[in-house]
Amino acid sequence: MFPLLRLPYLCIQDITNMWELIDLYNFSILSKRAKRISRRKKENDSTVKLEFDYYSISLYRNSRVVLELPTKQFLSDRSQFPLFDPRMCVLLQTTKHLLDVFNCSLDMRDWRLKPPMTKDQLIMMIDWLNGMENEVKKIVIKSATWEMLELFMNRFQRSIRKLYIRNKLGHNDYKSLNFQVKQLFLSNSSKWFHLDFLFSLDCDRIEMYNSILTEEDLNMFLRSWQEGKTNRNLKSFEFQTCSDLDIKKIVKDCGAKLKDPRTTKHEFPHIKCLKDRGNWICGGIHIRGNDGRLAILNGYFDYVEDKDVPEDLIEYYLECLELWNSGIKTWERKCSHFNFF
């Protein structure tokens, strides 16, 4: 057998740099020294993705899978969702090892915070996350009981880029977020999502669906932003409510002005917040903050500056203008979006 570890360190580095990633990983688990030698320089586009539905661990680079570890040690049958058992400890240890070797961030998918997982097991996993040095890039909670979700929200202490909560929860009252979400907070079922919680979010983007927030709640949110009190980092806020809301009540006493999409167009500087919608916002309801910043409610998105506004949008604007100027008629919608400049 070739005495690899007896070579000078730089020679070993040159050799291991030529290996396939799976060979590098297998070498790294031989010993502490092998792990230290295998450790790569940090790459911002690299992520270890841990998917709980199948207990799979994958390394991604530029959104492409470059290494997928065998799951036989965790699962005997990938077609079945496994119960929470001691193999989870092995899964977490393997994930941590991969994070250490490839020096990248963690993306947790399809996390189910409910039985058969116990509170003690959830606490173990949260403490594991809190204690790691690597960045936690994204957490996706697929389902949860309210008690378990509240435990996670109160005990988790890391700053993360994105948090997705895809679970249906009842009318609970959770006051504030105790950790920082930098880029995106998304909740598919937001009946637990109250005004105080909205105030506590200081991320770039919020997506809130099936919400029970009222016109008065959203008006208070807008006025608080206008006065510079809360949500200072917010660039985009999409919301869908369970019932129709009157747009005019949402912007009441905020100095709002409805703009003609044919004559008013703004380039949105935070293009990543718009997904595939284009970076020009036409028309919409304009609200100025006390510091001069601009918020646009329900603007029309376009890809180019000088493109003609579609006829159907002009017709819609004229209908909205009639509602806007009416002292009697309401302007009701369930889905709306703010963009903040």
Automatic annotation (TrEMBL):
Instruction: Give the Pfam families listed for this entry.
Output: FBA_2
**Which InterPro entries does the record match to this protein?**
F-box_dom, F-box_Sdz-33
Q: Which domain of life is it from?
A: Eukaryota
Q: Which PROSITE patterns match?
A: FBOX
- Give every F-box domain span: 1-50
Q: This protein is called what?
A: F-box domain-containing protein
